[in-house]
Design a protein that fits this description.
Number of strands: 0
Number of domains: 1
Radius of gyration: 18 Å
CATH superfamily: CDP-alcohol phosphotransferase transmembrane (TM) domain
CATH topology: Four Helix Bundle (Hemerythrin (Met), subunit A)
CATH architecture: Up-down Bundle
Number of helices: 10
Shape: globular
Largest sheet: none
Helix content: 55-70%
Order of helices and strands: HHHHHHHHHH
Strand content: under 5%
């Protein structure tokens, strides 16, 4: 099962790791490896990437960020192949992404000796960008009967699925809400009518997917590899202005 029915799929610029992730998941389907194991592996991979940035092994860091994106795709694919979707995995995945984003930008700030204010703005920008993309994508998935572990409005802990414990789902949900709740509210306030919008053309979703975490990490990895580390934080602050362009474009399409 894919996140969207075939008819509504689009070219996702942030999901370049999906083909390799599917192959990894396929080979692990008959093993005892679980999607949670893969999530913890991509978390470890991301932490190793930040350590490499700290010690200025930038090409290695870039490679690890790409590997992290591949593994990030593999955990969801494995869950679908084994038919074991879970809210535990869904929230752990998102929490891990947030932790890695903060660590990565903080490490780049440290090695470039930049402004802490700019670093904070970059983190906020990264999260708002990713939240806008996920907001539109989850609307599509819910509308066209795609993956259902992500909800448009995360207001209360969902009921645990078969094979997972409610106490873990509830705990991870609370942590998720702490990290993501403010960004979800901001994006909803900026484009509350998107939920009832009828037009999400494939080309539009492809364009917005440049805000997906995979594509963000690809940009960061490329800038590290080509010794542009001093420009990463300012870049993502400026990149945030496209949020308003995409929102207004979405409104124009649904006028």
């Amino acid at each position: 099962m894919s996140k969207l029915p075939k008819k509504y799929r689009f070219v996702d610029l942030s999901d370049y790791g999906r083909p390799a992730g599917k192959k990894i998941a396929y080979y692990l389907t008959s093993t005892s490896v679980t999607p949670i194991h893969i999530t913890l592996l991509f978390l470890s991979c991301g932490i190793l990437a930040t350590i490499c940035v700290l010690y200025q092994y930038y090409w290695t860091a870039a490679a690890l960020l790409v590997l992290k994106s591949i593994l990030d795709a593999a955990d969801g694919e494995l869950a679908r192949m084994k038919e074991t979707p879970s809210y535990t995995g869904r929230y752990l995945d998102s929490i891990s992404d947030m932790v890695l984003n903060i660590l990565l930008i903080a490490t780049i700030w440290y090695v470039t000796e930049g402004s802490v204010v700019y670093a904070i703005l970059a983190i906020i920008g990264l999260q708002l960008q990713g939240t806008l993309y996920n907001y539109y994508y989850v609307i599509l998935r819910n509308r066209f009967h795609g993956d259902t572990t992500s909800r448009i409005f995360e207001k209360e802990a969902p009921k645990a699925m078969a094979g997972e414990k409610q106490q873990y789902v509830t705990l991870l949900f609370k942590i998720y809400r702490f990290f993501y709740g403010p960004f979800d509210k901001i994006i909803y306030l900026l484009d509350s009518k998107a939920v009832s919008g009828k037009e999400f053309p494939k080309w539009f979703m492809t364009a917005v997917s440049c805000f997906g975490l995979g594509f963000q990490l690809l940009i960061i990895g490329g800038m590290l590899a080509f010794d542009l580390k001093d420009h990463i934080i300012p870049f993502f602050i400026g990149y945030s202005f496209f949020i308003f362009i995409f929102i207004n474009l979405r409104r124009f399409l649904n006028r």
